[in-house]
Amino acid sequence: MTHEEISHRRLVSQKLYKTNTVSPQDIVYHMGAMQAQDYAMAKWAVGSRCTVAEKEIEEAINSGKIIRTHILRPTWHLVSAEDIYWMLDLSGPQVKRLFASTAKQHGYDDKKLDQINSVIQKLLTGNNHLTRDEIMQELNIQKSAGDLSPVIVMMNAELEGLVCSGKMKGKQITYALLEERVSKPKTKLTKEEALAKLALRYFESHGPATAADFSHWSGFSPTICKAAINAIKLQLNNIVIDNQEYWFGKDHTDLVNFCESVHFLPAFDEYLISYKNRESSILLDHQSKAFTKNGIFKPTILENGKVIGTWKRTIKKDHVTIETEFFDAVNLDAKESLFKEIKSFENYLGMKIVIT
To answer: How far is CA 81 from CA 15, 51, 114, 306, in A?
Structure first.
């Protein structure tokens, strides 16, 4: 298997190879968790993998079928309601450990955070969905430069399984009680069962990928990740390339008749961000043009599994403008062929797109 074949297989496993007539929550469930700190781009990450419009993805989030919360690594993710509890039980403690020292530096120990959670629970009980600013106002926590109190308080409440994303209030994101959004399951997975489930979901939806890639995506140590892979290796295929062992799901029949494809992927898309080593998808010389060393990922243009440029959208009153920047020179005919693929984004937004 070559690096080109790896990128082709990743298109298949990430549901980017063909148009999928499935629901937004089905896409999120398949992917396990999708990074989502840029909310608008996170919705397009789902939309680029199925045929639904943005408003349908918004509805899936508003209805609680998809949850946006902090999970796995300490950043925002989209996760299906079906997975939220076991995934939170698994990754919540490790994320809390990562920001515990920051919380203490700002004067928040476990006792104080528990007291605040009790107040938040009373505020939100009865499907009362509030924005973070509204919650901070009720808690009498003033916004000030450099003060991470709002982040610490709400992330802790998420990781404790108290709150999650609520219904949008205009253009503002709200919080709601998790148990009022999603019923608690009657049984719990052991840590080993949950790790095995997470590993299987990752390699089936992101493979071919290495143990280091899984560690990068999940936030768990290489040792823990290798143990999880060992528990499920009979359910996966594997291959060694350049002394690296890659794991992937057994159902890759779409690859037999692989055809050319172009995608305009969102910022922070799983296609790049979920791997530690990205050279199968983007040349080393181009990586600094697509993402920064401190983790800022731009929207990218993908041709046959390879990143060939970046793009930027600007929403106007009655249309959306798209600016593109290609890494290498592209002739006019090739550009026009590439730009035909922006039609899916136009259908998703329900707005005319003008390429500048």
So the answer is: 20, 21, 25, 32
